């Protein structure tokens, strides 16, 4: 289980200099922040210039995976095995302090570094794509047709072993200066969370199709990060 | 405020032309600015010694410029003050697209990649105006309720700005687009929308007596979509 896993070792690129008290290097915290997210932002360098591409991703043990069209510039660049920085962030709340300087944001973020590598083997690719579908929509690969060879060919799967990573978390209310507590203004936290809305069926959904059994875990009003974390933990069992 | 439909589009460049699913690419300023203005956080990519870094941070837009700030001791900000190229990316996740084959599963989203060169705002007066404008944009009128930024706070905060040199947006909307032969599949298909919702405000335990429990930031109504609120605030600030 994750509580027996060793923490990531802070390195020059991951050691938090600002607010070291917000730093987390243990795998449990880093993995939970990653697993609660659907999208990451991948930083890479082409001809010395930085690019940040948002994309879907998933974690399997010490590896992060993302995918896309085999024609994509991002993936073609990364296929040669270049260093990347995968960043995930959750905005959890606005912090209203009693002076401008003490306004803040509650958040959870991870920066993970590694070298992107293309997954070439078609069997491994297919297993990876199916695992991603199954993770979000358990049981779904059994009620759909299999991925076609040309779809596997048209899709690139990238993987990266996490070499080093750090988490950064701010939680709680405002921390004001003692002399500012007398200020005549409201102070506190305005929470923000990503919530799932009512599903919109495709116009051609067969009327007898039981949506509940297929997407019931993505219930209206549920918090997306919590649902994703639960799904990831179930998939890892 | 100039009618944004009269603003010229960004010109697609080698860096910003959307190649994949190019019909999702948008270059008009109205779309690009609306996606930026509906967000509070961005991801800034920069390069130190050949190594890419992506740092999430708060940001705001003013005309053709994007601003972000942080501690003057921050590695990210110190490296960017030298005037290095950055890529500032913003993403909104709008919904899970559930299709009839694995291949056609997708995500509804709005994203912008903006490129430019980060530059430090050195002038203390300009810095103070910028930081106050950010507070008042998110919380209109708030700088009138709180004390001014003091000298050491101003010194401890670095303000960075970047003129958008190139930008593109990418937007996916709508339901699944399946292969014709898959429509007979006996499975649910559709969209599960995702919305960033504002929750009930939590007052600080040391709220001064006489201050109502509800924040004066009345626009952050419980249950309101955060992105829409931010967009409305940005438009008000630009008036």
Structure characteristics:
heterodimer; A: 237 residues; alpha+beta; Pnp Oxidase, Chain A; 7-stranded antiparallel sheet; 4-stranded antiparallel sheet; 7 helices; 12 strands; 34% strand; B: Pnp Oxidase, Chain A
Tell me what the structure shows.
- The complex is a heterodimer of chains A (237) and B (239).
- The relative contact order of chain A is 0.18.
- In chain A, strand 4 and strand 5 form a beta hairpin.
- Chain A has 237 residues and is α+β, with helices and mostly antiparallel strands.
- Chain A has a single domain (2-175), classed as Electron Transport, Fmn-binding Protein, Chain A (Pnp Oxidase, Chain A), CATH 2.30.110.
- The mean pLDDT of chain A is 93.
- Chain A is built from 7 helices and 12 strands.
- In chain A, strands 1, 2, 3, 6, 7, 10 and 11 form a 7-stranded antiparallel beta sheet that branches. In chain A, strands 4-5-9-8 form a 4-stranded antiparallel beta sheet.
- The longest helix of chain A has 15 residues, at 122-136.
- The longest helix of chain B is centred in the middle third of the chain and has 15 residues, at 124-138.
- Chain B has 239 residues and is α+β, with helices and mostly antiparallel strands.
- Chain B has one domain: Pnp Oxidase, Chain A (Roll), CATH 2.30.110.10.
- In chain B, a hairpin with a 2-residue loop joins strand 4 and strand 5 (65-71).
- Helices cover 21% and strands 34% of the residues of chain B.
- In chain B, the strands form 2 sheets. In chain B, strands 1, 2, 3, 6, 7, 10 and 11 form a 7-stranded antiparallel beta sheet that branches.
- At the A-B interface, strand 2, strand 3, strand 6, strand 7 and helix 3 of A face strand 2, strand 3, strand 6, strand 7 and helix 3 of B.
- Strand 11 of chain A pairs antiparallel with strand 12 (202-203) of chain B, so a sheet runs across the interface.
């Amino acid at each position: 289980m994750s509580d027996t896993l060793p923490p990531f070792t802070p390195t020059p690129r991951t050691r938090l200099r600002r607010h070291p008290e917000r730093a987390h290097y243990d795998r449990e915290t880093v993995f939970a922040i990653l697993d609660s997210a659907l999208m990451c932002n991948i930083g890479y360098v082409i001809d010395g210039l930085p690019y940040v591409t948002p994309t879907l991703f998933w974690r399997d043990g010490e590896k992060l995976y993302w995918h896309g069209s085999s024609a994509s510039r991002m993936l073609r660049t990364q296929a040669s095995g270049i260093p990347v920085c995968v960043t995930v962030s959750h905005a959890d709340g606005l912090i209203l302090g009693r002076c401008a300087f003490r306004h803040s944001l509650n958040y959870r973020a991870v920066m993970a570094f590694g070298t992107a590598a293309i997954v070439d083997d078609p069997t491994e690719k297919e297993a990876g794509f199916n695992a991603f579908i199954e993770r979000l929509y358990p049981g779904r690969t059994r009620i759909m047709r299999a991925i076609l060879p040309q779809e596997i060919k048209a899709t690139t799967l990238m993987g990266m072993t996490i070499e080093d990573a750090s988490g950064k978390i701010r939680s709680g209310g405002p921390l004001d200066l003692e002399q500012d507590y007398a200020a005549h203004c409201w102070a506190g936290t305005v929470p923000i969370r990503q919530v799932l809305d009512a599903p919109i069926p495709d116009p051609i959904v067969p009327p007898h199709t039981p949506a509940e059994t297929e997407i019931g875990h993505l219930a209206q009003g549920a918090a997306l990060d919590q649902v994703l974390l639960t799904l990831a933990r179930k998939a890892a069992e | 405020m100039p009618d944004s439909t009269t603003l010229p589009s960004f010109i697609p460049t080698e860096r910003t032309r959307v190649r994949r699913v190019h019909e999702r690419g948008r270059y008009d300023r109205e779309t690009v600015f609306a996606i930026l203005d509906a967000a509070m956080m961005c991801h800034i990519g920069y390069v130190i010694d050949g190594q890419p870094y992506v740092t999430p941070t708060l940001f705001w837009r003013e005309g053709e410029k994007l601003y972000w700030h942080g501690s003057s001791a921050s590695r990210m900000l110190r490296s960017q003050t030298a005037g290095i190229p950055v890529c500032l990316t913003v993403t909104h996740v709008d919904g899970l697209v559930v299709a009839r084959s694995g291949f056609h599963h997708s995500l509804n989203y709005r994203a912008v990649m903006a490129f430019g060169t980060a530059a430090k705002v050195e002038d203390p007066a300009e810095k103070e105006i910028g930081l106050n404008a950010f507070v008042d944009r998110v919380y209109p009128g708030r700088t009138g309720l709180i004390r001014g930024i003091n000298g050491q706070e101003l010194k401890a905060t670095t303000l960075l700005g970047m003129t958008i040199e190139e930008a593109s947006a990418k937007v996916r909307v709508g339901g699944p687009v399946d292969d014709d032969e898959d429509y007979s599949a006996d499975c649910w298909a559709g969209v599960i929308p995702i919305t960033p919702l504002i929750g009930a405000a939590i007052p600080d335990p040391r709220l001064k007596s006489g201050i109502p429990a509800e924040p004066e930031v009345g626009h952050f109504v419980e249950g309101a979509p955060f992105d829409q609120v931010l967009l409305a605030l940005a438009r008000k600030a630009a008036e």
